[in-house]
Amino acid sequence: MHEMSLAGGILKLVEDSARRERFRRVTRITLEVGKLSGVEVESLRFALGAIAPGTLLDGAEIAIEEPPGTAWCMSCAELTQITERGEPCRQCGGFRLQPAGGTELRLIDMVVEDD
Question: Average pLDDT of 54-59?
């Protein structure tokens, strides 16, 4: 379950930010997890909940945005929406697709409480 290591990385980002910006608690965190990122959203949510007690994330609301997958079709030169890798282009049916969006895993926003 690589989502547990991803959750640890997210916690490290939060802790590094807290040291730099001097806040004591996070009340809300917003993540962007693209449909083509290879991350199981519910597993990530579970992992964040599992590591949160006793950390800056303890009690924080976790919001996760899931942008759709998009790909550039090299056959018809169109941008197409896809839900998973290996799907054909919706315009021409070709399989020569280059992912263009939905591969993200980003920390977008934090609402924090100061010292």
Answer: 96
